[in-house]
Amino acid sequence: MTKKIIYSVRPFREEFIEKMKEIAPDYSFQTEVASDELSEIEVSIGWNREYQEEVFASDHLKWVQSISAGVDNLPLNEFADKEILLSNASGIHVESISEHVMGIILGYSRGLFQAQRAQLKKEWLGSAIHYQALEDQKLLIIGTGHIGKKLAQHASVFGLECIGINTSGHPVEGFKETYPLDRLKEILPKATIVVNILPLTDQTKGLFDAKVFEAFDEEAVFINVGRGPSVKTADLITALEHGELAFAALDVFEEEPLAEDSPLWEREDVLITSHIAGQTPHFQTKFMDIFLKNLQSYIENKELEVNEIDLNEGY
């Protein structure tokens, strides 16, 4: 009998392939599939749009394990219609992204970005350098999941007061206060540092628009390590031009890579990083810790143990 296929869009080390074989001996792990094998794919690690039509036509696919935390680029409606299980890699990038954000907060508060620009011009700034104490400043973390909680933990060490926004406003450990997303504009004026870590859903697409930026404290720093399309780029540029916020650090964008003619490149009140916040050492080990747990539970009872996505909610 032909083995059922676990297809992966990327290779993994032999040690992990051996563990897959131990858990699922009746399955074949493959990073390449012939056209006549597409109908045999039952589990997909990552998603290959090139194979999408053929894989859906077979009705054999039962589970997709996303390699990233974000799943907004996947055909969620089709997964729901065909009752295909979906899990993501949430949790892998917790330390990397929270450290990235803290690097930005520290770099801005001590004037390091300003000093770097001055160095290139051989300009001695002296007391003209921008600096501010972090202690007792309010950090608004929009998205209080794994990454948000880790960020709050790091930030509290520096004396930052962490407040959070999540869908319902439910309390979360490490946050002094939490509020529902529909109160965002009301809460924004309280914060001098605002970090977006939200997933992309119908509710969060284009969330940061002109009206939201108007609610920012004019001295606030905005950091986006969530999803690019949650921010309307043109509205952000206008807000910066009008002084509605002081600085923006952007790791994700509506369209990537960011166009060469984007005015964001030239702005001294913007830091651009090229979607690198989530780069994580030992990725395979951390990812396989999630996948192998799910593979075990899938083989045993066709359920997923960790990080299952609600296809109706998109996260």
TrEMBL record:
Source organism of the structure: Candidatus Enterococcus mangumiae
Signal peptide start and end residues: none
Gene3D superfamilies on file: NAD(P)-binding Rossmann-like Domain
Domain D-isomer specific 2-hydroxyacid dehydrogenase NAD-binding: 103-277
Keyword NAD annotated: yes
Domain D-isomer specific 2-hydroxyacid dehydrogenase catalytic: 11-304
Protein name: Hydroxyacid dehydrogenase
Family: Belongs to the D-isomer specific 2-hydroxyacid dehydrogenase family.
